[in-house]
Amino acid sequence: MRMKGISISSCLLGVLMAANAATAQTDAYTVSPAVAETYARLSAMPAVQKGLDFLKADHANTVAEQRQICEIPAPPFKEQVRAADFQKRLAALGLKDVQMDKEGNVFGLMPGSGKGPKLLVAAHIDTVFAAGTDVRVKEKDGKLYAPGIADDARGLAALLAIIRTFNATGIKPAGDIIFCGNVGEEGLGDLRGIKAMFRDHKDIDGFISIDGTEVGKIIAPLRSDLQRTRGP
Ligand SMILES: [Zn+2]
Asked: Residue 209 Cα, ligand 1 centroid: separation in angstroms?
């Protein structure tokens, strides 16, 4: 896998995802001057401001989709029904070449202008819960409760909201973006879905996974780790 560091596309997605976080944290963190400058520049662009406003206005849609997705069971190795549903949602948003691969991942392409790195943005379809688990969403005191409602129904819904934001603002990424619902992430799945994506798409330059309940946190490999993965 080739990694070219932080790209404009990934930084823009960072801006959008941070805004999409349901309960964003404000813990201080340090990024390189180049990333901070790019983030500030993107955040100030009128089109990006429009996108951030769109995300707020789209909140109810995002939560509605989160609930719908959560209520489609997706036990380990039995993600097919939720994957087929997610494939339809990707296609409805106008992505190109929407498809399901042999592993069961569903994905589509948002073409860039041809001048940037290719980015994979994914959220995982599978849950850790066994077949037969009651996945109906219950609401209490303004909070939603259900197995997998956060991890990773929220990630899947956020991914769809980000595509809608690109569509609403007309922002065109520099590089192609593959938006993917991947299977086999949790437990015995052992990342089989994402491994298949990197096996089958050798031209991916960067990867963002939208996952987890700590929505204010970004986990990124250190540059030294990336160099180690390149081998001797
Ligand atoms: Zn997860």
From this structure: 9
pLDDT tens for residues 71-122? 999 999 999 999 999 999 999 999 999 999 999 999 999 999 988 999 999 9
- What are the structural domain ranges in the chain? 8-229
Dist. CA 124 → ligand 1 center (Å): 7
Cα 158 to middle of ligand 1, angstroms: 13
pLDDT digits (tens, 9 = 90+) for 15-67: 555 555 544 445 567 788 998 999 999 999 999 999 999 999 999 999 999 99
Locate 186 and state its tokens: 């949790």
Q: What is the 3-state secondary structure (H, E, C) of 179-207?
A: EEEECCCCHHHCCHHHHHHHHHCCCCCEE
- The CATH class, in words, for 8-229 is alpha beta
